[in-house]
Design goal:
The chain is α+β, with helices and mostly antiparallel strands. It is built from one helix and five strands.
């Protein structure tokens, strides 16, 4: 995924399905470096992880 699409998803009111390593995630924020994002798994676990945005996939 690229920076432009991450920003579009973050500003969209729609529920857009995004996966990281096959797991469905929410994007919390695009980090200041512009190459990574903070995400967490959809569901009860709120553990946040910083990932490279190129590893995010829109389903």
């Amino acid at each position: 995924m690229d920076v432009k699409r991450v920003k579009q998803i973050l500003s969209s009111p729609a529920d857009i399905e995004v996966t990281y390593n096959g797991a469905s995630v929410w994007i919390d924020q695009l980090n200041e470096d512009g190459r990574t994002a903070t995400v967490h798994l959809r569901g009860p676990l709120e553990e946040r992880t910083i990932v490279d945005i190129t590893e995010l996939k829109e389903e």
